[in-house]
């Protein structure tokens, strides 16, 4: 008898219209605010990116100073 009950439940969930209805209902529960996600990522990524770019610029400037120092008589 139990196996028959499980098979009935599986069939009930496998019906496309009922499944689509359940998905529509669940789709209303989860909301994603793209603007908030972008703002958070912007804040999270801005600092490490600025640090990396500043380090690259500093290294380039130091390299240029060393190059000029070695060219002077």
Walk me through what this model shows.
- The protein has 73 residues and is mainly alpha-helical.
- The protein has 2 domains: 1-31, no CATH class; 34-73.
- Helices cover 86% and strands 0% of the residues.
- It is built from 3 helices and no strands.
- The chain has helices at residues 2-14, 16-27, 34-71.
- The longest helix has 38 residues, at 34-71.
- It is rod-shaped and about 80 Å long.
Strand content: under 5%
Total individual domains? 2
Gap from first CA to last CA: 99 Å
Largest sheet: none
Oligomer: single chain
**Strand segment count:** 0
Q: Provide the residue-averaged pLDDT.
A: 77
Q: Assign an overall shape.
A: rod-shaped
Catalogue the unreliable spans. Answer: none
Structural class of the helices, strands and pairings?
mainly alpha
Number of discrete helical segments: 3
